[in-house]
Amino acid sequence: MTDDDDILAAEFALGLLDRAESEAVQLRVRSDAVLSLRIAWWRDQLVPLVAEAEVAPPERLWARIASQLPVNDNLPRLMKRWRALAIGATGIAAALAVFVGSRQPTPLPLTLQPAPMVATLSGETNPAIVTVSYDATSGQMTIAPSALTAGAGDAELWIIPEDGKPRSMGVIDTKSPAGHAVAIERRTFVHPGATFAISLEPKGGSPTGSPTGSVIATGKIIRV
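RE: above sequence
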């Protein structure tokens, strides 16, 4: 991955891109697993800091960061975007300084590799009817039902990110644990805070691309 792509992943994760740029990135991640995983990593590292930020950083902080960094062609563009965001996160400023201080992309240390994620899906009257685990490094998801029935139809798993739009993860086995390879274009949606949901659908899954039957279980994704 190039340095520019790493910056692009960070900007996309924080919602700093304009509409055209964002759509271009979404198109790329359909076939670029490395970019997809890097976006997920940046989101997990930086979005919590943004959510906690309340006070805009003083002007002297940006000036001090810029003065202490080595020459970097990417610095003006990235600093401009981050300042425009007007977020008061000293941790983000520090992370930015470390990141743009090197012209060459560096692989994630082992300790910073994305940790596995898990969600326990429950219904109103049926607790813990499905457990979903996901490994962002491999893109593999394991679904373990414990008290799930779909009647004459199928149970379909959905991922619901921040925009509230469900995306299908496919029909699932209601009887036995099974592994699934998550499609590349879906991987950026699977991250802590997003929601998994299961709906009852006709055989073969929803005919519309959206849930059509009853939603019988939901659960938030967390890191373990």
